[in-house]
Specification:
It holds the Pfam family CLAMP. By secondary structure, the chain is mostly helical. 10% of the residues are buried. Helix 1 crosses helix 4. The protein folds into three domains: 124 residues, no CATH class; 90 residues; 28 residues.
């Protein structure tokens, strides 16, 4: 405690708690320690720091503040392993020894402070500071994902308007998907038709051209026409079904536009804000009028 001078405790008080505790540790000439693994030293440092805060809060002069911190350290050492009765006697004896150093008001305040903190929780102090503790500590580092930066309020929308726009986007995406499926189906049917026509043709015999009879040629043509007719019929059926699906999606979009929610007009200031609100109202009204036609 030799380094705990009035100027030193004044500096400790002037910092925030974390920085003040660190400065107090340096003034006490303690080595750095792990706050989590060495809980005894951490609690002892807290006790000394709180005694300084108490003394300053009660208006003690800086010289007496340093004495209170020294008093706290001595009391913790001298009462280690003692009973509550013995601890009270030691506290009384040390307070009587400080009668010439403190005025009556400060001495009474110091007595109340140690009775309400140290003596009241004496068994807890003895358990933590008076014997070694087996600490089983597991430290897990967790990554915290912060939420994304919110958009400015000017870009905000009503929930009903946002949900309406999402439904319209979903219908548009479904329509695009239907058209893409139709194109894929056309390509698949064309490849299948080409493959069937190639299989239908007779294989050439050697290098000489094969001469087909009239009946074989007629059968070949009829089969080719049959293959093309089947593929065309299948394609028309799919086109009709997909067309009906697309028309149904368009009808749903039309219905949504007819019942589109009106965005609430936020209070705005200035002529430019009023003009923007008026334009928004007119645009929404015109859109509903076109949808009804």
């Amino acid at each position: 405690m030799a380094l705990l001078t009035p100027q030193g405790v004044k500096k400790v008080f002037q910092f925030q708690k974390a920085e003040g505790r660190e400065r107090l540790r340096r003034l006490l000439n303690w080595e750095e320690f792990d706050e989590l693994r060495d809980s005894r030293r951490s609690i002892l440092l807290d006790t000394l720091y709180e005694s300084i805060i108490f003394a300053v809060g009660k208006g003690f002069p800086w010289v007496e503040v340093a004495r209170v911190a020294k008093f706290t350290e001595e009391l913790l050492k001298e009462t280690r392993g003692c009973s509550v009765t013995e601890a009270v006697a030691i506290l009384g004896s040390k307070l009587r020894g400080h009668q010439g150093q403190l005025n009556a008001t400060h001495l009474l305040a110091q007595c109340d402070y140690f009775h309400n903190t140290f003596i009241r929780h004496y068994k807890l102090y003895q358990y933590v500071l008076g014997q070694d503790q087996d600490v089983n500590l597991t430290v897990t580092h967790l990554e915290v994902c912060v939420p994304p930066q919110p958009l400015p309020l000017a870009a905000g929308k009503d929930q009903a308007v946002w949900m309406h726009e999402q439904q319209v986007l979903e219908l548009r995406a479904a329509e695009v998907q239907k058209r893409a499926c139709l194109l894929q189906l056309k390509e698949a049917l064309q490849l299948e038709q080409k493959h069937l026509l190639q299989e239908m043709l007779p294989e050439p015999r050697g290098r000489q051209h094969q001469v087909l009879k009239r009946e074989e040629l007629e059968n070949l043509i009829n089969e080719a026409i049959h293959i093309q007719t089947e593929r065309l019929e299948e394609l028309l059926q799919c086109e009709i079904q997909i067309t009906f699906d697309i028309l149904d999606l368009k009808l749903q979009k039309k219905t949504l536009n007819l019942h589109a929610p009106t965005p609430s007009l936020l209070p705005v200031t200035g002529q430019s804000g009023q003009d923007e609100a008026l334009k928004l109202y007119k645009a929404n009204k015109g859109r509903k009028a076109k949808a009804k036609k």
